[in-house]
Amino acid sequence: MLEKLKHEVCRYNKMLAGTGLVVWTLGNVSGRDRKTGLVAIKPSGVLFDELKPGDIVIVDLNGRIVDGRKAPSVDLATHLYVYRHRPDVGGIVHTHSNFATAFAAIGKSLPVYLTSIADEFGGPIPVSAYAKIGGLEIGKEIVEKIGRSPAILMKQHGVFTVGPDPRAAVKAAVMLEDACRTCFIALMIGKPRVIPKSEVERGHKRYVEKYGQGKQRGNRRKS
Q1: What are the domain boundaries of the chain?
Q2: Is 0.90 surpassed by the pTM of this model?
């Protein structure tokens, strides 16, 4: 069932480990099939380097397992809450990546100190209130606080990112950790200034509309 989605979700879970965003078994990627509404997610407690497409668990939006022999991630309730309330979301990532989680640990949002933050996120990265693990509380905080950002820092917990598909959600997680690492260093040596909102919006619009080869080819065809 949904073999293509299983392979995709498996691949991007492994990519989390390959980019250093997760350790041991902590973290997960899920993806939603647009036709059926079913969700593919990493199984609980399986090492990333041992993960296979056949291990990926398929569930419906109520959490009922429809395919798979392993128990799904313990973060399943969070993922499903977001999917039920954000029909635009097709991929979700959860990590405890070091630098982003350092900001989460002290309940500090990430201001737009860098043009890369403006480009990728279009504004500051919000931070949630503290939420209990294991139920719907984290999902509710994500939906209420994330706004138009693809990423949110969960206070004293970690990171969640969302996107139209798993690839986009993983990209957001990678870019967030990179930005948090740079900003952490900058804060150690000085006080960076926040980029003005108008410039943030200009940079983000340019990035969305013009970054990437496909968009450039389209522009040349029009000219």
Answers
A1: 3-196
A2: yes
